[in-house]
Specification:
Chains A, B: It catalyses: L-histidinol phosphate + 2-oxoglutarate = 3-(imidazol-4-yl)-2-oxopropyl phosphate + L-glutamate. Two copies of one chain form a homodimer. Chain A has helices at residues 7-10, 40-49, 63-73, 86-97, 113-120, 163-172, 226-236, 246-257, 259-282, 304-313, 337-351; strands at residues 27-28, 80-83, 104-107, 125-128, 148-151, 178-181, 202-207, 220-224, 285-287, 294-299, 316-317, 319-320, 330-333. The termini of chain A are far apart. In chain A, helix 2 (40-49) runs antiparallel to helix 8 (246-257) and helix 4 (86-97) crosses helix 5 (113-120). Chain A has two domains: 7-37 and 260-351, Aspartate Aminotransferase, domain 1 (Alpha-Beta Complex), CATH 3.90.1150.10; 40-258, Aspartate Aminotransferase, domain 2. Chain A is of the alpha/beta class and 352 residues long. Chain A contains eleven helices and 13 strands. In chain A, strands 2-8-7-6-5 form a five-stranded mixed sheet, with helices on both faces. In chain A, strands 9-10-13-12 form a four-stranded antiparallel sheet. The interface between A and B is large, with 86 and 86 residues.
Chain lengths: 352, 352
């Protein structure tokens, strides 16, 4: 703290991202990155964009990328907003649509950045406890509130939400924006994108960090009716005109074009996930059903925090959240089959 | 406007960046880009970083780049904050240090994003009129206020501020943060960086967009004492953990290393600027003395707005601001000698 900080800054409680270790090489299953490389066309497009034109500003409106994403989802370009990672898109969304006088609803067990955004925007969150099995109590999101944010599938549990529940929540919240954060949707969930045409209150947020294996280039986007997208652009253009650089833009365009490659990789990840769940069950873990590229697991006798530290000693990083209700769970990213074999070996050694 | 926008968003008045035209090829002297390419090492470093590691998140703290910048300026890494372009750095600075109850002081003729940031942060600006010759009235910045923002050199005038005036303003504002925005400092200005050790209230903001010829990769930074940098990190980490992607980070590191190349390019730009000023004087323009990579010029008989549109017809883009006191001026970026020859040809044709 410093006398130079304003009162707004003094009350902030920043997000803490998963560790990006530099001390040694780990089997890195802690930040839900894709274990497979970006497509060759993406890397080629970026190399191609690394030219003299970097002296020039990028297109502040990302017209080419927006058109590409719009075509992919059968939407208009005016229904697409691009940001510097879905975290920036979410930050702008909180700034644009939610108000201090009306609490914004999100779950007690969810992406922990939501409460940071709420704080950033001086919003009072309305925390909705998940059911005991970590399913979402849709009714609780239908009571009066000033907006809704739900990840589908949820993080860190991995549980997907049926599209009928989303419709139910959208119908009960006609006057507020409902954000469905689909960061992990491509690993088995049901997307809400087809609902956009019928629901002016729906904003779907996506990222290239997981499915498209591009956490390193920071591109996320929001899909929704034009009014919502215009609002996001108004806030963004009051903050930073050029949020997407020429290199990330070029890589993102190629990634959208290369969907067939990414679909195959997602299928591999899903197969590895199911294999891993069976193996974990066999050594005493219970695992929440997952529709994402990570699983949330708890052991019947060994404490999660102990396993977490022991795994680190064994060179395997997973994520542990020391917070009520989930302090006996580990969030484990699905890596390659080889990486998951190393995880299993380490776990067997730890639990023996 | 939409019913879904909150009251904050309804009152915003976004920044309008200079045109990035797509309809035809122009001599582009409208957004103060560097006419020379980034160094070959920068392009090589970016190509090298376009690899499988893009599947992983970047370092959220940009430790390597911060270390490099710190060494370059003989500061500690803890005195460096990195952002997605200096516009993002400035937005975070307004959010961190200024308060609605105390007006932040900036000039009437200055970078027009400042009033957008003030609006974004619900601040009431204290607008200080420049003197008639567009010099800065330092005394007016020493009256009670809640913070100060000054570009040195100023935009769009190009006028530099003597370091003694900056010291004078810093001494009179010990309890508020004084931001010196040095986007254009490397084209002849005197940097305030050596004052950082003595002034805990000084924040110097820089960009790689101009001097380093990297407007296309979006990297800016702030230099100041650790308390100020910690404040910026607190706000940034409440907004977006990973603002700098792997590619921009790699390019920026190479750019800092390649300072000798950029110094040469800056010298060429300065030589072209002085040549252009003489040529403009010869055809009836008066030009404000410039220490930047652009000039601010007014013709003795022809109206700036008329010349602006006629130049566009001739395939030359410059910037015109339709606002009081400067509505008879053109802001002209210094391009290559060949580009400036085309400007002069077009002007001679227009004014004949």
């Amino acid at each position: 703290m410093s006398n130079y900080w304003n009162s707004f800054t003094r009350k902030l409680d920043p997000y803490v991202p998963g560790e990006q270790p530099k001390d040694r090489k780990y089997v890195k299953l802690n930040t839900n990155e894709n274990p497979y490389p970006p497509s060759a066309n993406v890397l080629a497009a970026i190399k191609d964009a690394a030219n003299d034109q970097l002296r020039l500003y990028p297109d502040p409106n990302c017209d080419e990328l927006r058109g590409k994403i719009a075509d992919h989802f059968q939407l208009d370009a005016e229904q697409v907003f691009i940001g510097n990672g879905s975290d920036e898109v979410l930050a702008f969304s909180f700034m644009t649509f939610f108000s201090p006088e009306n609490p914004v609803a999100f779950a007690d067990i969810t992406y922990s950045f939501y409460k940071v955004y709420a704080n950033l925007c001086s919003l009072s969150p309305k925390i909705i406890p998940l059911n005991n099995d970590f399913t979402l109590p849709a009714d609780a999101f239908c009571e009066p509130n000033g907006g809704v944010v739900i990840p589908n599938p949820n993080a860190p549990t991995g549980r997907g939400l049926p599209i009928e529940s989303i419709k139910y929540i959208l119908n009960a919240n006609k006057d507020q924006v409902v954000i469905i954060d689909e960061a992990y949707i491509d690993f088995g969930g049901s997307t809400a994108v087809p609902l956009i045409k019928d629901y002016p209150n729906l904003l779907v947020v996506r990222t290239l960090s997981k499915y498209s294996s591009l956490a390193g280039i920071r591109v996320g986007f929001a899909l929704g009716q034009k009014d919502l997208i215009n609002g996001l652009n108004t806030v963004k253009n009051s903050f930073n005109s050029y949020t997407i650089d020429r290199l990330a833009g070029a890589g993102a365009i190629a990634a959208i074009d290369d969907d067939a490659y990414y679909r195959d990789m997602a299928q591999k990840i899903i197969a590895t996930r199911e294999r891993t769940i069976m193996q974990l069950n066999a050594i005493g873990f219970s695992v929440i059903p997952s529709q994402s590229n990570f699983i949330f697991a708890s052991h019947k006798t060994a404490a999660a925090e102990v396993i977490f530290h022991a795994l680190r000693e064994h060179g395997v990083l997973v994520r542990y959240f020391n917070q009520p209700r989930i302090d006996n769970y580990l969030r484990i990213t699905i890596g390659t089959d080889e990486e998951m074999d190393k995880l299993m070996e380490a776990l067997k050694d730890i639990l023996k």
